[in-house]
Amino acid sequence: MDGKEWKNKVLCQRKNGYDRFSEAERPAMEAYCTGYKAYLDAGKTERECVGESIRLAESKGFRPYTRGMTLKAGDKVYTSNRGKMLMLAVIGEKSLAEGVQIAAAHVDAPRLDLKPSPLYEENELAYLKTHYYGGIRKYQWVSVPLELRGVVALRDGTVISVAIGERDEPKLFISDLLPHLGQEQSKKPLSEGITGEQLNLLVGSEPLAGEEKERVKLAVMKRLYEKYGFVEEDFISAELEAVPALQATDIGLDASMIGSYGQDDRVCAYAALRAVMDLDDFSGRTAVCVLADKEEIGSVGVSGMQTGAFDTFMEDLCESQGVPVRACLEKSFCLSTDVTAAFDPNFPDVFEKRNAAFLNYGVGLCKYTGSRGKSGASDAAAELVARVRRVFDGGEVLWQMAELGKVDAGGGGTVAAYMANRNIDTLDAGVPVLSMHAPFEVTAKLDCYMTYKGILALYRDRT
Ligand code: MN
Ligand code: MN
C-alpha cells in the first residue's frame, strides 16, 4: 500500500454525510421528511402521537393484538398502553427463542401541564397555572404562542378531547417583562429570570357582562363549558398540556434542516414507526417498535419504559410460541433511539469536538450517556457497538459516534438503561438536535433519514 492507502486504512476520518450521500436517495429523503413534518404537526402530545401512529400503522395492515391470538410470520400487531404508549411487532419466521430486534423511542416531550386547580383571575385578566414537565429552560417559554391540547375526564367516565389554538384559533401566551423595566430581572442568572410560578397562561381579558366578581374568569369558564361541556371542577381530572403553537417547517436557505416543537424524541419515534411499517421481509427475527411515554421525567409510571406493560407484551408474544420470555430477552437486541446534542458553533465551549455529534454526519451512536462519570448510563458492550457498525455499514447508513457534551458539562439519560436492566443488549442511537428541549428544535434532514435507514437495517439484519 502506498502512503495514502495506509492513511485511509489506519486513520478514522469523520466526514460530512453529504460527501458520501447518494443523490439518487434525495427524493426518498425529502419524501420521508415531508411525512415526518406531518407527523410532528399531528402529534403534539404523547396521546396524539400514539393516536397518529396507530392510524398510520393500521393503514399498513397492523391490527390490535388480543391475548391468545395465533400469530404467524408476517403478522403485524400493536398494543396501545392506555393511549400513551404504543408497542408494535412484525412477526418473523425465526422463533422468538432467537430474540427480537427492538427500536425504542419516546413520544412525550417537555411542555407546560395545567395544575389541578389552574384557573384564576388577577387584575381582571384570566390565567391558567402550569407545572412544567421535563427539563425546560423556563425563559424560552414566555412570549411565544402556545396552544392547549389534551383530555378532560368527567366524573361519569366521559373523556373530552381538547385542542385550543390550532390553525386560525386564538392562541395562549405567557408574558415576559419589557426591557425598559427589566433591569433587575436581567441581572439574574438565566435559570432564575423566569420562575415556575410565573409560567401562567393568559387566557382571557373580557369580563362577563352583568357579573360583579371574577368576571373574566367566569367568561373563560362559560366559554369552555359551552364549547367542551366541562366545568371548573373537571380540571381536577384533566391532562391538558400547553405546547408551542408552531408548525413544523424547513429551516435554512437550502431547506436542509427541519424546525419544530417536540423533535426530541418524535424524530426517532417516527423513524422507528416508519421502519417497522416498511418492513417487507419476514424471514428473520421478530421486529418490535416501542413508543414510550414519560422518558422526560425518568421513564417512570405505568406508561414509561419501566412499566410492566412492555414485559406483558413480550410475554404474550412469547407465550404464543411457547417460548419463555427470559429466553427471548437474553437473545434480543434494542436500539434505544433518542436524540443527542448536535455540536453548536454558537456554544462551542460545552462540546468536545472530537466526540461531539455534528449536523449532517448521520445517525449518532452513543455507547453511553449519563452524567458525572457515566452515572445512569447503560454503557453498551464493545461487541455490541461493533455489531451495529457492521449492520449500519451493510445497510449504507451514514452514522457517527456521539457524546452529549464535555465530560463535566452536564449529561442526560434515555430509556437504554431500562431495556438493558431487562437483560436486553442495548445501544443508544439517534438524531443530533440543536436547541434540544426548546419550544422549537432543529434537526438535519439527512440525519433524520439516516436514523430511519439505520433502524430498518437493524430490523433486516440476519446475523
Ligand atoms: Mn429524548
Ligand atoms: Mn429529552
Fraction in beta strands: 15-25%
Low-confidence stretches: none
User: On the 0-100 scale, what is the average pLDDT?
Assistant: 96
How many extended strands? 22
What is the overall number of helices? Answer: 12
Strand order in the largest sheet: 1-2-3-13-4-14-20-16-18
Question: What ions, cofactors and ligands are bound?
Answer: manganese (II) ion
Structural class: alpha/beta
Write the layout of secondary structure elements.
Blueprint: H1 3-10, H2 26-42, H3 46-59, E1 63-64, E2 76-81, E3 85-90, E4 100-106, E5 111-122, E6 125-133, E7 146-153, E8 159-164, H4 183-187, H5 190-193, E9 200-204, H6 215-228, E10 238-244, E11 249-251, E12 257-260, H7 263-278, E13 286-292, H8 308-319, H9 325-329, E14 333-337, E15 340-341, E16 363-366, E17 370-371, H10 382-394, E18 399-401, E19 411-412, H11 416-420, E20 425-430, E21 432-433, E22 441-444, H12 445-460
Parallel strand pairs: 1-2, 4-13, 4-14, 14-20, 15-21, 16-18
Antiparallel strand pairs: 2-3, 3-13, 5-6, 5-10, 6-9, 7-8, 7-10, 11-12, 12-22, 16-20, 17-19
Bound molecules: manganese (II) ion (MN) (2 copies).
How would you portray this structure in words?
The protein is globular. It has a nine-stranded mixed sheet with strand order 1-2-3-13-4-14-20-16-18, sandwiched between helices. It has a six-stranded antiparallel sheet with strand order 8-7-10-5-6-9. Strands 11-12-22 form a three-stranded antiparallel sheet. The protein is of the alpha/beta class. The structure holds manganese (II) ion (2 copies). The site of one manganese (II) ion has 6 residues, from helix 7.
